[in-house]
Amino acid sequence: MPAKSVAPITLAVKPSRRLAGVMGLLYGLSVFAVVASPLPWWLRAFVAAAVLVGAALTPTASVTRLRVGENGGWTLWRADQEETGLTLLPSTVATSWLILLHFRDGAGRFRAVPLLPDSLPPDGFRRLTVRLRIAPPGEAADGT
Fold first, then answer.
1. Which residues, listed in sequence order, are joined to residue 77 by a DSSP beta bridge?
2. For the chain, which residues make up each domain, given as ranges?
């Protein structure tokens, strides 16, 4: 069987406004649920403050660029740090509205990168979805 030939893809990743909106809504609903609960006022205040601190500490944009090479090797850039040697895991999900990339780095740490259509250039989301369907995780680029 001939080897698959797939062109490398390099994409600039920006923060998703949709994801930020959903996360803000979820944090807001969490605070509302805590405040509306029958707990003592001091416990409600403590838990609501903990939820708000968690919202403030949630990273907004960790990955700024990603590249998938011809041989299926993945590289991520976080701010000024480049991460290479990442292995795309079979648990990666690619749908028409969400790509959830699951990686394992050289040290064995798990990385998850959620991508929505507004995170990538106009045709970048489609190109990445097609790439994941052509060369799914766990399959070598040479077809072996």
1. 65, 82
2. 9-15+61-134, 17-57
Give me the amino acid identity at 58.
T
How long is the chain? Answer: 144
pTM: 0.75
Region at 81 (left for phi over 0; alpha for psi -120 to 50; beta for the rest) = beta
For residue 4, what pLDDT is reported? 59
Question: For the chain, first and last CA: distance in Å?
Answer: 9
Higher pLDDT, 8 or 144: 8
Q: Residue 13: what residue type? A: V
Cα-based angle 88, 91, 97 (whole degrees, multiple of 5): 95
What tens digit of pLDDT does each residue of 112-124 get?
A: 889 999 989 888 9
The Cα-based distances of 65 to 22, 71, 77 in angstroms read 22, 18, 5
Pairing of strands 74-78, 65-68: antiparallel
